[in-house]
Amino acid sequence: MPMLAVGHRRTGACPTFDRPVQQRDGYLLRVPLVGGTVTPVQANAIAEVASTMGNGVVELTNRGNLQLRGLRPETLGPAQERLRSLGLGDPRAALVTISPFAGPVEHALRARVVDALGSIAGDASLSPKFVVHIDDARAATSSRRAEVTLRSTGDTWRVEIPLVGWCDVAADDAVSTVVALAEACRSFGHEARVGDVLDACGPGWLHAVLPVELGPTSSAAAATRTMPRPGDLLALAGGPAVVVAARFGRVDSEQLGSLAALGLDLTVTPWRSFLVPCPSDVEAPRPPVDRLARIGLIVDPADPAADVVTCIGAAGCWQTEADTLVEAERVVALRASGAAVAGPIKAGGESDTSTGTIHVTGCDKRCATRGPVATTFIGRTDGSGFDEVASRARATFT
Predict the structure, then answer these.
(1) Residue 129: which residues within 8 A CB-CB, separation 6 or more?
(2) What is the pTM of this model?
(3) Residues 6+ apart with CB under 8 A from 261
(4) Beta-strand (E) ranges in the chain?
(5) What is the pLDDT of residues 78-108, one digit of tens each?
(6) What are 210-234's pLDDT values in tens digits?
(7) DSSP per-residue codes, 320-381
């Protein structure tokens, strides 16, 4: 059996519901959601837990989950028990994710995959970053980071393993391929992922252990898709919903409680926003944008904070000394004034960042987004400021 390559780079512990990670501001507890969906009762409970057992901050993740910050050792257990009592915290929700735009066919396949994986979902030897993603039919989340992605093509399912290959197969074969891939990574080494296997021995070993024949992955760049914008009205399987952005991808417990008070199932998207169902009458759906704006959420795509993305930075993370939240507010203020945003040190001359997504990151892990950005400001290791750097080419979410 091949082993992990010596010196393989790890980017840090990944928090889960069962394995919270201690950060600078306390424990970080990630709450996985199936398809990003959270009921009013669940949302209200998360808000209460954040307020009474954490520091009141709830973050939206780029995997369509929620995470609570600032929990204390004595509140971790009660917080987990409270959320588990409402059906939250199932590790399978994080292991097998699904597009918020998925329909009954995709959800039925997800149920089969979850059932087939069985106890693998709770196995500590499987990396918490090992993710199976089920896309929707129009491939709205095709660039979602995952070890393997499944998408319906009509009578078959497209199975794609990045950098390894793809094939169109029947549902049974798609499910067996997922199980074989998970077993392969689990047996390869502790918390190993597909990237670990490829680094150590290339794709040949995986091709040999998988039950289907994979064709080569396309070298062509994926078509760029536009991410949903605040205020957009989208058609979901359950009806229309409006896109509502959270400032810097986080809300406080009061805001989440106000959202829960709407009495609607909410969807957390991979773009760190909410999809809020719209009540409809005979003529047309009526987005509750005024009420959402009063809560403090972003419903206008022209809002200067709509395209500013940032991590928690030094306020909560050990990885950086840079205050990303202050820098992000500086960017928003400059955008509101109509000024171009320039970093303290610029490469290649003046840049116009009055439009496009700006990513403020505390370190080179760049956790806050995996989508395309116009400009990135990265915190210096000594906490003295930020440098403007060339933005990495990123696959879009959609």
Answers:
(1) 14, 191, 193
(2) 0.86
(3) 40, 44
(4) 21-23, 26-31, 37-38, 57-60, 66-71, 96-98, 132-134, 148-152, 157-161, 165-169, 233-236, 239-245, 250-252, 266-268, 273-277, 308-310, 358-361, 375-379, 386-389
(5) 999 999 999 999 988 889 999 988 999 999 9
(6) 999 999 876 444 444 567 899 999 9
(7) ----HHHHHHHHHHHHHHTPPP--SB-SSS----SSS-EEEESSTT-TT--S--SEEEEE-T
| Chain position carrying tokens 């809560």 | 295
Q: Which residue has the higher pLDDT, 19 or 121?
A: 19
pLDDT grade for 4, boundaries at 50, 70 and 90 = very low
Residue 38 near residue 265 (C-beta atoms within 8 A): yes
For residue 175, the model assigns a pLDDT of: 97
List the helix and strand counts (H, then E) for the chain. 10, 19
In angstroms, rounded to a whole number, what is the distance separating the alpha carbons of residues 244 and 231? 6
Q: How confident is the model at residue 189 (pLDDT cuts 50, 70, 90)?
A: confident
**pLDDT score for 15:** 87
Q: How far is CA 31 from CA 212, 285, 315, in A?
A: 34, 30, 21
Q: Tell me: the pLDDT tens digits for 43-59?
A: 999 999 999 999 999 99
CA nearest neighbour of 270 among 217, 333, 225, 326: 225
Which tokens go with 276?
Answer: 């809020």
Q: Provide CB contacts within 8 A for 210, sequence distance 6+.
A: 177, 180, 181, 184
* H/E run at residue 246: none
C-alpha dihedral sign at 316, 322, 323, 327? negative
**Domains, the chain, ranges and CATH?**
21-88 (3.30.70.3340), 102-135+144-209 (no CATH), 233-295 (no CATH), 308-389 (no CATH)
